[in-house]
Amino acid sequence: MCENVLEILKILIILAMLLGSVPFLVWMERKGAAYIQDRRGPNRATVLFTRFGGIFHGMADAIKLLSKEEVCPEGSYKPFYFAAPILALFLSLISVAVIPFAEPLKIGGCEFNLQIADLRSGLIYVLAISSFSAHAILYAGWGSNNKYSLIGGLRSSAQLISYEIPMALAAISIFMVAGSFRITDIVLDQGVVPLYWNIVRQPVAFVIFFVALMAESNRLPFDLPEAEAELVAGYHVEYSSMKFAMFFMAEYIHMFIAGLLIATLFLGGWQIPFINAELLKTSSYEIILFVVPLLGALLALLGALSIGSFKKCPTPFGKGDCGPIIAGSLLLIVGVVLIVGGFLAGMLDLPLWVSNVMLFLLQIVVLLIKAIFVCLLFIWIRWTLPRFRYDQMMRLGWRVLLPLGMINLIVTGAVIMYIKY
Amino acid sequence: MQHTMIFEDNKMYLNIGPSHPAMHGCFRVLVELDGERISKAVPEIGYLHRCFEKEAESHRWDGILPYTDRLNYVSPLMNNVGYCMAVERLMNLEIPERANWIRMLICEVSRICDHLVCLGANLVDVGALTNYWYLFNERELFVDWIEALCGARLTSSYTRIGGLSRDIPSGTPEILKKCLKGTSKALNQVEKIIKRNRIFTDRTVGVGVITEDDAISYGFTGPCLRAAGCDYDVRKVDGYYHYDDVNWDIPVGESGDTFDRIFVRFEEIRQSSRIIEQILERIPEGPIAMDRGNISLPPKHDVYGSIEGMIRHFKIVMEGISPPPGEVYSCTEAANGELGFYIVSDGSDRPYRIKVRPPCFSIYQAYPKMIEGHTVADAIAIMGSLNIIAGELDR
Asked: What is the CATH number of domain B52-394?
């Protein structure tokens, strides 16, 4: 019984996390782009005198897109036209299923594994789904009855197919190192020391995988399917309102999953760098007594500083921003609770599951931080590099990445043979 | 299921423009695509035709000036200078020294603005979006100065026949020196980002090549001709105003491709900065407009304070300027190349005929030839590097 409930619960949790990541990533992209471009970025949307650095722009955008007029171009092929955005969002959402967010949590008789499906074919599933996502763009391109869309769709399908192969080659070298297709095994194989993570053991595979993922998620050096200057908006030029929003969400979810994948395959997954999970479990008493109050004190200090900065706002209740005071007081409260709770818990005897839950949450946070770091890399690259031309992108895929992947595969095989025998 | 796409011999016909993000202005190019390659291109012009030349025939000589702002709307001050210079040559006028120097100054400032816009837009066309802000932030400071100069950011109408409408704002040397410093920093930054970037060089080197002979026979002028290797510059050849008295070089490209066109513009901004620095040191004091009763308006205190001034003001406002009958062709080096005005006067207060020779018009002739055989993405990059401005192309 408890398994069934937990199954449904974790699917809901992961879906909510993914969908919730979209406004955050959009905000991050806009702010990142703005700071790269010497601008301020979004900072106008205000809710109850609070701006929080423009994070409400995502909400405003959602409302705008929901309330826009639904336009369907004349002569479009309706089944494809309407299926495309649904398919795009669906395919980008389901590829998260095999990613483990943390070590399985054991409480009493229940085991809670924050991974929707621990498939033995793990990574192959991701490759399969990502190659399927070309269909969404192709349908959109064909169904829209627009030549720009059509060119975008064609470019996209060619791009996805040609970058699928180097990506698979990079994945195979990971399989060879880990000796398994299961993503959990790949994560555990890397261990907690960053020196043994796959980014160090397989740097070439990392580069290939990173570039291929960037191409798969249609981001700037590879954004030919929607090349703004050439194809206006490429495959989604005819899409408006929520249909466009679905493509948009799919793109950002794609990016987030790319970050999660790279974090999982190359950056040690949910493992906390340098700190062994077993060590954390056995020394949970000290951690609760010392680390938690310290963390609380840090948060409280941050909160106090944030509240202090509020005084500098020129017009507090006119056009001012109450973000600092709200965030600051929240941080202060959490900090105080942590200090008090840490000392109280240290004095009392805690059941074992508390430290397990703490570890579980910590692992999720570590994975998310790694994924967001990768997303920041994506954003940085997007706003720095120019766009490839179609044939040049093909050349990079087939003439550079593919041979490189093959050589990497052979070298990896030779090294493994040498070590083993 | 009704599909309007027609495929013959696997060719697709695509309308790029007239409303398209990369068509700076309003152009339409009908291209025949073989896959991604353009096998044939037919440009269509006239979407921004505003009858400048016909309109000019029914306006008085000084009333035409505001229309020239709209020719190349990225650097309107240069069009003002070009037109006024043509009329002054028609009338054989010698404008005061200070006006000469200020006209040179505003020309070089607008050249920098124009090139910054062109480079920013061209880099956006090849996907390097961020550089746009680095360049436009600096342009913004120049435009702020232009606003202080004439009260408008775009529709300047600053020069007058026989001089200038007003003097340069106080503190100009400091402001412009600060702008130039910022510009040189921005140029270095952008150059660092793109010059050795493999994606960028792949996109631009060898793309849209035009040889020197072809460029000359198409009538190229300006940066596009210089990128092809010809060191023709009206400022050196004609030596109008004091361009002979200041030290500057003509940047010349080698292969006439998009890369060269972009970096010739980079270098021209640096040369213009050099010119501006020298102008700021050598600009003399003195009147900014001729003191001739039938040409320029008297100072306001004369108009309100003396009967002669009042009458002079009245005569010019009511009757306007009447150049002697005759014709003249006068050209200046505008940001895109040779901007010529061919003017015929019949001695009345309105021109008999004005023909503008915009640099873009000749350059755009070569555009279909240049993009044939290239991909759509290249066509966009070439379009940006030619810096076709619809306002002066269609007039």
From this structure: 1.10.645.10
